[in-house]
Amino acid sequence: MSAEDLTKSLKVLGMSQGDLARDIGVRPETVYRWCKGNHPIPGSVAKVIETYLQMQAEKIAGEFNGTERGSAEESAKEEVNPS
Predict the structure, then answer these.
(1) Exposed e or buried b for every residue in 13-33, given b needs 16+ CB within 10 A?
(2) pLDDT of residue 51
(3) Which spans in the chain are helix H?
(4) Number of C-beta neighbours around residue 6 at 10 A
(5) Number of domains, the chain
(6) CA gyration radius, the chain
(7) What residues have CB less than 8 Å from 69, skipping those under 6 apart?
C-alpha cells in the first residue's frame, strides 16, 4: 500500500489519521509519516485498511439489500495488535 492509497482510504472511510492510530495502537505521528511517505506502511496495517474498506462495502451492500453483515473489525485489529 502506498502513502497515497492510505490517505485516500482514510478519506473514503471517513477516518482521521488519529482515528487509525487509536484503532491500531500507534502514535498519530506514525500514521502521519506513513501518509507522507516518510516510512513504509507495514503489511499488517494495509490488511487492516483493506478489512475496513471491505466492511464498509458490506455495510453499504447490506443497507442496499436491507440486511447487515457481520463485522471483521476486531479480527483486523488483532492482526496489528495481537493480545
Answers:
(1) eebebeebbebbebeeebbeb
(2) 93
(3) 3-13, 17-24, 28-36, 43-65, 73-80
(4) 21
(5) 1
(6) 13
(7) 58, 59, 61, 62
Say whether 42 sits in a helix, a strand or coil: coil
Domain hosting residue 32, numbered range: 3-80
Q: Is it the case that residue 81 has pLDDT exceeding 90?
A: no
| pTM beyond cutoff 0.90 | no
Cell readout for 24 is: 491500531
Provide the grid cell at 39: 516510512
pLDDT in tens, 9-24: 999 999 999 999 999 9
Which of 25-39, 49-63, 64-78 has maximum average pLDDT?
Answer: 25-39
Cα–Cα distance measured from residue 11 to residue 57, given in angstroms and rounded to the nearest whole number: 14
The cell for 69 is: 453483515
